[in-house]
# Entry
Amino acid sequence: MAFPQTPSHSLPGAFLHTPAVASRYSAQQDPVRRRLFQPGSNPNAQAAGTFSRNQGLGLNAPTQAGEEQAARGLQNQNIPPMPPMPPLPPLAKASFYINNALSKDGEYPQLDSYCRQISSDYDLTRDDSPWAPFQKTNMYPIPQNVLEQYNRAEVSTMMGLFAELNHAWVTIDNCLYLWDYTHPNPELIGYEDSTTSITAVKLVAPKPGVFNKVITHILAVATNSEIFLLGVAAKTAPSGAKTIELYGTKMSINVRGDQARVIAGSADGRIFFAGVLDDDVYELKYQQEEKWFSNRTEKLHHYHRPWIASVPKPSQILWGRTAEEHVIDIVIDDSRNLLYSLTNTSTVRTYHMEAPNRLDKVIEKTKEHFLRDIAHVLSVTSPLLNERIKIESISPISAAEDSKLHLMALTDTGCRLFMSATSTASYMLNSSTQAPQSMQLQAIKFPPSEQQRPRMSRFGGSTEYPDIQSRSLERSRRGIRFAPGYFLDFVTRPDQHNVDLLFVSAPDSGRIHNGRQTGSLRYYEHANWIEIGSKAEDIGLVTKPFAATNQPQGFGNELAVQFDDPNGSEFAILTNTGIHLVRRRRLVDIFASVIRAAAGDEGVKAEVSKFRSAYGHAETITAALAVACRQGDNGRPGLGRGAIDQATQDRAKQVYINFGGHPRMPEQDGQPTTVEMVQPSTRHSALALYLSRLIRKLWRSKVIQVGTDAGGALSITSVVPTGKLKDAQGSVEGLRSFLDANRAFIQGLSGPADLQRAGSKQEELGFQGEHQAMRALETLMTGITEGISFVTTLFEERVTDIFTRLDETSRQQLRDLTYEQLFSQDSGKELAKVLVKAIVNRNIENGSNVETVADALRRKCGSFCSPDDVVIFKAQEQLKRASEPSLNPNTSRTLLHESLRLFQKVAKSLTQVNLESAIDQYISLRYYAGAIQLCLVVAGEKDRGNAALTWVNDGKPAGDPRAKLFDERKICYSLIHRVLQDLDAASSREPEMIDGKPTLIATKRAEAYDVVSTSSDEVFHFDLYEWYLQQGWTDRLLHIESPYVTTFLRRLGAKDPDHADLLCRFYTMRKQYFLAAKVQADLAESEFPISIKERLTLLSKAKTNASVTTTGVSRQEQQLLNHQVTELLEVAHIQDDLLERLKVDARLDEQRRQEIVEILDGKIQSISDLYNGFADQAGYHDLCLLIYHVADFRNATTITQTWSNLIEQVHDQVAAKWEAYNAERKHGEHLDPPAYPYEELVGRIQEICHRSSNDSFIFPVPTLLPEICKYSYQQAQDGRSNADVNWPVIVFLNLGVSYDLVLRVLEQMYEAQEVPFRGAGRVRIIEWIVCVTSQWVRELNRSGRPEARLEAWVGDLILECENWLSTNSQINNPGGADIRDITRAVKEIRRAVDGLVVSPVLNRSMGFY
# Structure
């Protein structure tokens, strides 16, 4: 058994063999281990655990020991798990995945983050290896006619490339010839008008505004005597071939005496050149026409010092005088406005370009400066970097590629020196356009090692020490760097000095990006050698310069753009035998080659393992998916673009299916797991990543660009070329086809089959989450293909005409529309439907049939033009025909009915814009009933489950999702309000009847309101009634006969007292008095801010309504309600009395009085609170007695004591008033006297008796009468106070107390002889007895009934009184009648009583009377 090698440099305490948590879905370590160890503290151990989990997921992991060891040396290669997503619709979820994938691609590190210090990391392969990063795709020989001219040369010849134009050139003495090297039999384009030999040729950009627009480039040609300019008009034929034409410009400058050998041009059209006699840089200035102080062309010498020739240079002092220094290369960095020159002495000068014609030298870095920087960077001496080195070439690094690195210099030993230039101003101002002041060495890239390392070592980790001794590139004579780091170096063969070998390398973007995620960021490169068979003359970039983004972050991510152009970056290399094309191979091309060349399934597994180790799991599966979708192998001999053999495609498909992993569930620490928490598998991540790269150019791009053409007319063009759109659409369609064809085998797409394999609830949730994630991406792919079809259709339909048909809001939305919105957002799809409608309307106006146009749109982009949309278009067509003035009313009405039927058929799909448009047209045609009916149907379709009604019935809780459905329905109801307003306005302008017949508008009004009244939409009725109230139409609401009105008013009444009063009016109008009384009683008891007097009014009305007989209400119910209202009314009266008294009670301070008012002038309080909190504490004894009555309180002692307190209180209060009155009279004031105490007391007694309904418990005559009598006698409330001495008994008799009861009470008082009714005091009782008896006798005599008689005890009482008076005739009766008058009255009463008393004897003998 083979054991893997022990990982080196393990951290102490990291026990690799400790059992891990055996969880199939664990994406993290267990909680205890997570606390003990920081994540990533031991990369080897963590990677081992990760790979083990992948095996547990069913991944076909490597089995060989070496492969396993390589896997353990890596951390988790998956894309970092995304946080749990909230529930989202499929398109929004897919959009999230795409944006996340694009963000990951955009996080590719910038160059200086990994190009640091020294490095020699290469993965060097043979040019025929499947892993080779570059391949030679074609070789175009030099045409025979060019060779014939070449052989006739007498003085000099030169060759070069215009690679961007697919043309090569050759100079033969004074003649210049150009040809299309891609053409099998090209035509030579010659210029033979020069009189001297040509020394340099350069293709540069023209200055704006100087030449005609047909001129696309300028050809700067230097001879021994002059430099002249030729205009180049380049055109691209439909076949892709490029043609050029040369035009004379008559622009030239004289350079006699200094041959120009190097020419360079900036992007803004400036032309610089250098000669062989000095190291200065000159400029050829040209303009459209001559001016006063300048010619059309001038030679500018920006940096000229005459004394420089007399001062020896430092190199001449050290090494002696050498040949004259001159410039051998000029390169320009337009992004920073910098120009670099390289001289034959390895001196690099930096110039800062300022518009319009300024050039300032800012830095000069000699070879000695380079060596000094190298000594600081290298801790040991390298034979490759010493005083004998020579800098062969320089290449600029743009600001878009890196913000710090500026320049790459290549030495003749093959070392690349990366330089950074800085300035204080640039740091302070953060501007890349500031002129730098110094240049330092940032990093050194040494040649690849001459000793090959095994592939596993290269992918498993990097060497600790770079190889600084390798001489593999020692004879480098020219090298050039293209973004994002493509390096092409021509190395002279040691055995053939006229033959070059081409060394090509490129950043291994996949490994660099993966290294950023794993924390091992290094400058990885892969490279290979290419035989070109002769000496290279020139090199050029055929394709557009590489740029994944326009900023350093993400600029060099080749993986992100590998599907933008299947051909990738291509370079043309000119030799004396022909032009060789070298292509940079994409990762997908390499993957396809690798798995094709693998031997059997085990070989494929091994190669996949290597890919995973180098590029990560997700990137590997993404490459497999791309190959399975027929990407890759571009440039392979014998295959066309996108072609791939079936065996390779099948292998890639198996890798995608079998190596894609499984979904995972994060640790929740006991929290319940949901589908949204599922982290999809790597297979899903690869699908999202591949899809995002297919559409990356479209996703965030706008759809249209609005401008003007040459004539000033409106011009609308596609931001993304139509060809690019179709390419992306084809790629997405290929991806969809692959998924459809393999649905049964791909986890997440097979549906129920996945759930059957689930072994637990966790796995089932994982499969559900995976399925939802995959389905979301499939839905998005459908939207992408249809969206692109829609855009192409839009431009086929003359988009300018459609644009002018839109309203201003839609126009602005179309200007701002991006493909992301069009593909995945509702706003984009709604705008697309508006555009579809505009397209259909345009075609209808042009005479096309609506069905034909709509069907064509539906076939191309079904989601933007569904079958429902077709029906809508038909309905709109019917509506438009109905509005034609030439139609008769019957035909128009038929068309209106048909349009309504069609609209109702697709009510669910009607947009708000379509609905409002239809309603507006219905109103204009006075089709009110149809407009209302359509709104009701659409409202019902928006909420088919009637959730809005349940929300209303639940009291409209805040934050409830059902509120959104209600709002959607309310929009439709608002349109009905508009219809009714227009209908009412139209009705008010015309009569309802003419000649006894209803007018047309009256009929339409009746039809419309019939639709309203017969609607079963309860929510609509509620909204309509609320609108009536907002309009102040309460009378209209009260006259509506609908069961919904009662429910509506009842609900509103529970919230608003005014609406409750409206409900009472509604009931009383329909003679439902019992219900009105209940509403009023409930309102009186409610929490509404109603004053106590208003509550009294409500209760009084409720008592009145409750007393009226109502049909359908039982008498028992009516009496019960009446009783409840009466009791509540009594309490309310007491509370009102308390309020009024406490308002003026002088014992209260203002704050406390205000608090009491707030309590009592509102909700009716409980009787206990009124007694304990107010009445008893305030000493309002009369109100306490009333509270006893309401509370049915029967404690006689307490009641008697309260009466005593009341009598005493009333007397004291009246006495105080008299004292104040008398005091004021003394001061001469004339005021009305106050009432006497007995008068005040009589009033209180009468009030209490009436309000307590003669309650015998509250008004206890046997105990109260003696108290009153005692008060009257003791307090001289008799004749001494000008009062009727008999007022105590008269009060009771007037209150309805029987003569019998009053007389019996007086009899008890007489016989008891209690103080003060002893002795002479008995006279007063006899006087009261006489008063009561006399009134009783008169009452009996007045009635005249034969049966009116008195009982014998009355006669006995009168006789006893007479006897007592006869024996006490001398007693005084102060305040009463004279004793003699009393005696005489007693005798008279006795005689009257004797006539009315029943004789017991006669009664017994006769048996009657």
About this structure: The first helix runs from residue 31 to 36.
